[in-house]
From TrEMBL:
Name under which the protein is recorded: Uncharacterized protein
Domain of life of the source: Eukaryota
Source organism of this protein record: Palpitomonas bilix
InterPro entries named among the record's database cross-references: DUF455, Ferritin-like_SF, UCP012318
Stretches of the chain forming a coiled coil according to its record: none
Pfam entry (one): DUF455
Length: 259
C-alpha cells in the first residue's frame, strides 16, 4: 500500500498544477502580490493577538476587508501561483494565547452525555469554543507558515475564509456561554490541536490531512449527537448554535477538498 502522504501528494499535484503557471513578483503580478502581502500581514496580526476575542474580531475584519478589495479589483488572477519574493514565512511554535488553565487532555471536565445537566452543557460549549479558538490560529498559521509552497492565491483566500468561519463560530459559542452564566476561560482546556499541528508543521500535505481531515472530521461526526442531546434536555439555543456550526463546517470541508 502507498503511504497516505504519497497518495495525497500525487492527487494534489495532479490537480493543482493543471492549467497553472508559476510566476514571480513581476509587474504583471503586482496586484496579486500586493494582495498576498496584505493577507500575510493581516494573518500575522491575528496570530500575534493574545486576546482571543480580539483575535476573532481581527480574523473577521481581515477576511471581510480582503473580500471587498477583491470585489473592487479588476484583472485579478486568483488561480495563478505566486512566488512571494521578499516575503518571509511566520513559523510560530505557539501563537499568542490568553492565560488559561491548561491541563492534560484526560483532565478536561466531562461534557454532554448521559445524565445531561447545565454544568455538562457549559463544559461542552466551553470545549467547543476552545477548539474554535485554536481553529482560528490553525487557519492563519497555514497562510503564514506555508507561503512559499507555490500555492495559488485562491488557496490563501480560502484559508482566510476558513479563519473567518472559525472566528464567527467562536463568537457564537462564547456568546452562548455568557448567556448561560459562564465565559470562555472559566474551564480547564487542553492544547492537543496545536500540539498535533506542530507535529505536522514540516509538511503542508500532512497538516491538511491530519488536522483538517482527520481531527476536524471526527469533530463533525460527534456534533449531531451533541445537538440531539442538547435538544432533548431543552437547550434549543445551544443546539441551534451547534447546527449552524455543523452546516458551515461541512460546507467548508467540501470547498477545501481540491487542496
Amino acid at each position: 500500500f502507498r503511504p497516505l502522504h504519497s497518495i495525497l501528494l500525487s492527487s494534489y499535484f495532479s490537480l493543482s498544477f493543471r492549467n497553472l503557471s508559476i510566476v514571480g513578483c513581476s509587474s504583471k503580478m503586482e496586484k496579486e502580490d500586493t494582495l498576498l502581502r496584505r493577507i500575510l500581514d493581516g494573518s500575522r496580526e491575528v496570530l500575534l493577538e493574545g486576546d482571543v476575542h480580539l483575535k476573532a474580531k481581527k480574523a473577521i475584519s481581515l477576511f471581510e476587508e480582503i473580500e471587498t478589495e477583491i470585489e473592487n479589483a479588476k484583472g485579478l488572477d486568483l488561480n495563478t501561483q505566486i512566488l512571494p519574493l521578499g516575503c518571509s514565512s511566520l513559523s510560530l511554535e505557539t501563537s499568542a494565547r490568553p492565560h488559561l488553565n491548561v491541563v492534560a487532555p484526560g483532565k478536561v471536565m466531562k461534557r454532554v452525555g448521559d445524565g445531561v445537566n447545565s454544568e455538562k452543557i457549559i463544559n461542552t460549549l466551553h470545549a467547543l469554543a476552545h477548539m474554535e479558538s485554536w481553529a482560528i490560529d490553525l487557519s492563519f498559521d497555514i497562510v503564514s507558515r506555508y507561503v512559499h509552497e507555490n500555492m495559488p492565491l485562491q488557496f490563501f483566500l480560502d484559508w482566510l475564509r476558513v479563519g473567518w468561519d472559525e472566528a464567527r463560530h467562536f463568537v457564537l459559542l462564547s456568546d452562548r456561554l455568557e448567556a448561560l452564566g459562564a465565559f470562555y476561560g472559566s474551564k480547564p482546556v487542553h492544547d492537543g490541536l496545536w500540539e498535533s499541528a506542530m507535529e505536522t508543521k514540516d509538511s503542508l500535505l500532512c497538516r491538511l490531512a491530519i488536522m483538517h481531515i482527520v481531527h476536524e472530521g471526527r469533530g463533525l461526526d460527534t456534533t449531531p449527537k451533541n445537538i440531539d442531546r442538547l435538544r432533548s434536555c431543552g437547550d434549543k439555543k445551544s443546539a441551534d448554535a451547534l447546527a449552524i456550526i455543523l452546516n458551515e463546517e461541512a460546507s467548508q470541508k467540501a470547498a477545501l477538498c481540491p487542496f
